[in-house]
Amino acid sequence: MSTRVLLVVTNVDRYETDPEHPTGLWLSELTHAFDLFEKRGFEQTIVSPRGGKSPLEPRSLTFPNLDRSARAWRDDPARMAMLDDTAHPDRIDAADYDAIYFTGGHAVMFDFPGSTGLQRLTREIFERGGVVGAVCHGYCGLLDTRLSDGGHLVAGRNLTGFSWREEVLARVDRLVPYNVEQEIRQRGAHYSKALLPFVSNTVVDGRLVTGQNPGSAKETAAKVAALL
């Protein structure tokens, strides 16, 4: 049987804290993983908290964020159609998958943490010996995931993700609903970040792989693939 991976994307298209500001999936954080996993022959399923459409973050479609990988996806109707009809967590059997990989974009701050369906999939995949990956804001999806013993999956584990300093530099610190760097520490995680913002930084702790920002997407996906 081939290796199978769940790729998690958002359903949110606006900052709920200020609906005048659009947001969504940061496209390259999906495409770099998808391209790499596809080359390895992995089977992939895209899932979202509610199923259905996953909107794109407009800023991810502008220079220099729209790189070759993201541009190729945007220009391919078949691939774009995959984001119009993502799977619902309740229709996914975790036993069919070897890894779950959370993509980012500020939108995920609003719908990843409260998804009990995603929490179930993450817990079951991890406890069966699978890999959990997250890039950039994707680690918001790990905030409230608990293992069968009641403890947080991230407790006592080394990880990274989009930092508060990067929120400030991106000028969205007044729009985001919480400080995820602070919140993940409160769950007992050992959070770390690169000395410089926006440079590639990935942390591997056993079967948990996390990347700090969009620039970490390739490295994060490669380290997930290496574990698989």
Report on this structure.
The protein has a single domain (4-227), classed as 3-Layer(aba) Sandwich (Rossmann fold), CATH 3.40.50.880. It has eight helices and ten strands. The model has no long low-confidence stretch (mean pLDDT 97). With 228 residues, it is of the alpha/beta class. α1 (27-39) packs across α2 (68-74) and α1 packs parallel to α8 (217-227). The protein has a six-stranded mixed sheet with strand order 4-1-5-6-10-9, sandwiched between helices. Strands 2-3 form a two-stranded antiparallel ribbon. The protein starts with a strand and ends with a helix.
In short:
This protein is of the alpha/beta class. Helix content is 29%, strand content 17%. The protein has a single domain (4-227), classed as Class I glutamine amidotransferase (GATase) domain (Rossmann fold), CATH 3.40.50.880.
Shape: globular
DSSP helical segment count: 8
Kindly estimate the percentage of residues that lie in beta strands according to DSSP.
15-25%
Count up the domains. Answer: 1
Fraction in helix: 25-40%
Please outline the helices and strands:
Layout: E1 4-8, E2 14-15, E3 18-22, H1 27-39, E4 43-47, H2 68-74, H3 77-82, E5 99-102, H4 108-111, H5 116-127, E6 131-135, E7 158-159, H6 164-169, H7 180-186, E8 190-191, E9 202-205, E10 208-211, H8 217-227
Parallel strand pairs: 1-4, 1-5, 5-6, 6-10, 7-8
Antiparallel strand pairs: 2-3, 9-10
Helix pairs in contact: 1-2, 1-8
